[in-house]
Design a protein that fits this description.
- This protein has helices at residues 9-18, 58-63, 79-93, 100-107, 111-122, 126-142, 148-154, 160-167, 175-180, 217-223, 237-248, 266-276, 286-292, 299-307, 334-345; strands at 28-31, 36-38, 52-55, 67-68, 186-194, 197-203, 208-213, 228-231.
- The protein has 346 residues and is α/β, with parallel strands linked by helices.
- The chain has 4 domains: 9-68, 3-Layer(aba) Sandwich (DNA Methylphosphotriester Repair Domain); 79-123; 134-178, no CATH class; 181-346, Winged helix-like DNA-binding domain superfamily/Winged helix DNA-binding domain (Arc Repressor Mutant, subunit A).
- It has a 4-stranded mixed beta sheet. A 4-stranded mixed beta sheet has the order 7-6-5-8, with helices on both faces.
- Helix 3 packs across helix 5 (111-122), helix 6 runs antiparallel to helix 7 (148-154) and helix 13 (286-292) packs across helix 14.
- The longest helix has 17 residues, at 126-142.
- The radius of gyration is 23 Å and the shape is globular.
Length: 346
Amino acid sequence: MTKSDKLTDDDRWQITLAKDRRFDGVFVTGVHSTGIYCRPSCPARAPKRENVQFYATPEAAEAAGLRACKRCAPDQQSRDEAAVLQVIAMVREADTPVSLDRLGTATGYSPAHLQRVFKRAVGMSPAAYFRALREERAKHALGEAERVTDAIYDAGYEAPSRFYEAMEGKMGMTASDWKNGGAGRVVHYALIGTTLGDMLVAATEKGVCCLSFNEGVTELQARFPRAELVEGGEEFRALFERVASAVEDPASPATAEIPLDVKGTAFQQKCWQALREIPPGETRSYGEQAAMLGNPKASRAVGSANGANNIAVLIPCHRVVPASGGVGGYAYGPEIKAELLRREGN
């Protein structure tokens, strides 16, 4: 079974709306109202869904009477595309960073030109792509290994210090905290009245680790059963005031500047980061969020990850709504979700 066979037409439509380059070559989008077929990433304006059919190959689209789009040339694989795919394969197979010189020799490009081509297609340099893969392996290994140091070395880091440097500011918790669920951490909390109801906010020395509505210390203890809970003092007053202001005005740019200390699997953290990339005033369906992550079939997994989010508003899972319409479910009630969306829309 090919990668295309595993996709439904709904998946292909979400990929087309997201203009996801990673599925170029997997299928083509036929637009029967214009008589052309395109790559999924074609920059042209999205057609109406009722005019679209999907085809596994350019040949199949042409057999149906369609012609290739001149703008995105879906009937051609450019030399640049072939080079990008070759670099991805080389980097994924490597245990250590692959130099641009070596990649350039393999693809027949100069190192500088290859860097530009790869970054334009993937959104990051080959070196950054290697680091992202290594971090992903490390996060996965930390959940499986008996010893933290074993996981760090197995992920390809030369020493634990290299891992900590790479993950600074990305995981919130240290590798040991990740492994043992945060035991020994001190969580400071406060209960604050807002126009959306009573808000529970909690933070560590690194940032906010919980924001919920109509919950209390009992629920906080259930979320962090191994942590020491302490009522927030003067040193957390300013941070908690910033959080309260963010709840009242979730569209404020200052909301994105509040430090967070989140814990979750690598996939959950990817989902939460994708949520933070949805602009205030806009929404996405679960399928669209999954397409943002490069896996449009993962809408159910995305929904589960969003549901595991401990930090309402600041990690804005309220911006994801059902494709069928309405605001959908929300851990703290659809009324609060609808009000947050209304405030952002204004």
